[in-house]
Amino acid sequence: MDFQAIEKETFEELERTTSLADLDSLEAKVLGRKDGSLTKILRNIGSLPAEERKTAGQAANLLREKLEEKFAAKRISLQSSSLKTELETQKIDTTLPGTPFARGHSHPVIQTISEITRIFQTIGFNPVEGPDIETEFNNFGALNFPENHPARDAHDTFYLAWEPYLLRTHTSPVQIRLMKAVKPPVRIIAPGRVFRHEAVDATHAATFHQIEGLAIDTDITFADLKGVLTHFAQKYFGEEAKVRFRPSYFPFVEPGAEMDLQCFLCHGAKVTEKGEPCHICKASGWIEMLGAGMVHPQVLRNVGYNPEKYTGFAFGMGIERIVMTRYQIRDIRFFLDSDLRFLEQFV
After folding, report:
1. The domain containing residue 50 runs over which residues?
2. Which end of the chain lies in a sparser environment, N or C, as judged by fewer CB atoms within 10 Å?
3. Residues 3, 59: contact at Cβ < 8 Å?
């Protein structure tokens, strides 16, 4: 076991080593756990006679420590040299223009929520938000949904494992929470994300956005509701926008109505300039926009309001539907695809 020869040979190779890769190879060759030359010697010491074993072991361990120190010192030297070379050859020219980067912008749904919110704020409606997870009472019971209503079915609503919680199907629970906490007058809008168990296609999604409005005070009438929603339509779609109201049923309002917007493509003519049936309004002349109505007296009782003293109206609209109508977008799935080719059109 010629330890001096190993030491001399290793030191000479260390002197010739000029890269970290070569250093790693040399270290593995001498001190590697499996095939290192010194490691093999250490493994064989046990087979020596007892009188030689101690001396050989001490010499081998001493050499190992010496080599490890040499390798460590050489590594520090090479790293320092490499860093110095890199700094000298890769200087940064601070006079060059900066690296450009893409600037983000709001999603079209968020843009629309902000725009609609500003319109209603100008006439005294304050935005209020609530949790995505709701109780069955706030989502259905307080809003006058009977217990056997189809919307309460497990196949229509995302119920959570711990009852009676669920993912809200509309932002109406925000109205319930607020009315239980404050006394009239109330004027709010409630934007947010909602969830329904629906098959996803061009016009339906399991997750989408709504914005609902509520006004409670003395002597509020259906005329106030029509005035507010007509004002919104003309501010958002243009002063020439025309709307109509037709009767409809919702458990939480009485009377209830749907508001339609006159088709912006055919302007109510039901056909395009080419004489073809209008594909935007499906040849009806009108586009369904939102549901609304006077707050049901039972809903007022459920939150502790006196329906003999207070009246109010409520309305709700799907944000994706509003955007699709305004920009003639035919597939709701575009809003969820994160495709920059689509989203950059709304910068």
Report:
1. 3-89
2. C
3. yes
